[in-house]
Amino acid sequence: MAGRIPDNILDDILSRINIVELISNYVPLKKAGRNFKASCPFHHEKTPSFMVSPDRQIFHCFGCGESGNAFKFLMRYERLEFPEAVELLAKKAGIQLPKISVQESKTASLSTQLYKINELAAQYYEQNLNGPVGVNPREYLLKRGISEETMKAFRLGLALDRWDGLSTALRAKNYNLSLLEKAGLILAKEGGGFYDRFRNRLMLPICDIKSRVVGFGARVLDDSLPKYINSPETPLYVKGRNLYGFHLAKDSIRDKDFVVIVEGYLDFLIPYQVGLTNIVASLGTALTSDQARIIKRYTPNVVMVYDADAAGELATLRSLDIFIEEEMNVRVVSLPKGFDPDLYVRKHGIQSLEEKITNAANLFDYKLQVLKSRFDFHKIEDKAKIASSMLETIQKIKNAVLRSEYIKKLAQDLDIREEALLEEIRKIGSPKSYTGFSEGVPKRASPPINPTEKLLIKLMLEENELMDYIRKNLEPADFQDERACRIVSILFELVEQGKIVEPASLMNRISDDFSAQVVCESMFLPESLSHEQKETVAMDCVRRLKSERLKLKKQSLHEQIKAAQQTGDEERLGRLIQEFDCLIKQRKDP
């Protein structure tokens, strides 16, 4: 989008958007001097470290490192792509965006058409359920405890008991059947032609985080098998990257700071309907790393509620390790035998389930309980199997303190020497390097940067006169940090084009997050210098950088001279010595 929309339009959009007003729609901001402060919406913290500058129209979190302008905030908070964030803010600013080219339109057209086809299919199924043919299915749903309001909110529908119900309906709207096949809605016959994938089934649209229909789950209305079939993977729908109900539950998940995960559609619908709104369903499969990362954007805290049968326990155990690897906090609810969340809520009520969620077991206790129920830990061989399985999970924990405590606890519970468990876990292998936590969330701050280079970036953005002075006396190559070099190159280029440089507009020209963090961190450095003092500081910084570069150049030449002497390359040696002598004679002051 940045390549298609001129920079001046992006800058115009930003000039009409007040970042404080924008962010305050999502996060309560408090005045803090010239800036505003809040608890970061992107990670959980006790002490607010998220800063918003109305002067510079940027934000920066000193806890997790998130930085940027209004576009970046929307992208991060609403999980939008850059073009979507630009489009949203352009509408808010009342700016007409240029039309994309024919070639770009063709590239985007397949996804656009598939979204449209899925939407039309959802509407078709909804009309069936709400029409005369849907009387019995609606009665079935009502008997299962699903209200009319829930049917509407989740757009439940009905696939008719026909081979060509959907294909006939969409063909009448002039849609090519090959597109319906790409959407996973119809299948090709061996002898030619197509037939509907979903027939005589309750239809449950699966939506992405922006509430767009990407696929469908389909449940039988009797006892026939298979009970459920889902859409195949398509350009829009990847099973391991979606969670049922997440588009409606995400705000509640963020507010309550934990998510409840169940397995099936009805296991989701019944609890959600009666008030457990921070809940999602895993679409009937073991959870994937992609799904865990999606959840982690909103909360690091997970409570799993799966069926109390063997399959449910196995699925839960597999998922536990995924969450551990993503450094998330996992607890597990074990329902009584014969119950799933749907049946449990209908029989015992939502309060009873919520009590179980509050008292959910931690991952260690749950897994140990499951393994003890399968093996006789009084037998040496079974005790070894339990220990081995537990250690496979424990070794994935990246926090060394937690890992050590769980090993100690396992030794006590199984009456095994701690040294023996430590020896076994070393055989499994060490966990990935532990990077530390920021109150429960891995820190995402950029690597340290030379303070002199960071200060110069700040001075250039604050004072036009200093920008001119620094440009005359420094080259981007004088900045040793790659991020600083890249930022300064962009700054110099913008000045040469006669443009006024603002931090918010600079963000649109910076492609990597760490460079954006450097800019924002520099702009939030304490304000304590007068204009005259800034001039003095700028001159000092320029001298220091040139001196450092001169020193590095001399070191490099010295090493090259040694290498030329060792190889006997007299011609190269003479040239290098001459260059070294010239360097020595250079004035160190700019």
Structure, described:
With 590 residues, the chain is an alpha+beta fold. The chain has four domains: 7-93, Zinc finger, CHC2-typedomain (DNA Primase, Chain A), CATH 3.90.580; 104-237, DNA primase, catalytic core, N-terminal domain (DNA primase DNAg catalytic core, N-terminal domain, Alpha-Beta Complex); 375-438; 451-585, Orthogonal Bundle (DNAb Helicase, Chain A). 54% of the residues lie in helices and 12% in strands. It has 26 helices and 18 strands. The strands form five sheets. The chain has a five-stranded antiparallel beta sheet. A five-stranded mixed beta sheet has the order 13-12-14-15-16. It has a four-stranded antiparallel beta sheet with strand order 6-9-10-11, with helices on one face. Strand 10 (213-220) and strand 11 form a beta hairpin. Residues 431-445 have low confidence and may be disordered.
Brief account:
With 590 residues, this protein is an alpha+beta fold.
What is the topological layout?
Blueprint: H1 7-16, H2 19-24, E1 30-32, E2 35-38, E3 50-53, E4 58-61, E5 67-68, H3 70-78, H4 82-93, H5 102-130, H6 135-143, H7 148-153, E6 157-159, H8 165-171, H9 177-182, E7 186-188, E8 194-196, E9 201-207, E10 213-220, E11 228-230, H10 246-256, E12 259-262, H11 265-273, E13 279-281, H12 289-296, E14 301-306, H13 310-325, E15 329-334, H14 341-348, H15 350-358, E16 361-362, H16 363-374, H17 380-394, H18 400-414, H19 418-428, E17 437-438, E18 441-442, H20 451-462, H21 464-473, H22 482-496, H23 503-509, H24 513-523, H25 531-567, H26 570-585
Helix pairs in contact: 1-4, 1-23, 3-4, 11-14, 14-15, 16-17, 17-18, 17-19, 20-21, 20-22, 20-24, 20-25, 22-24, 25-26
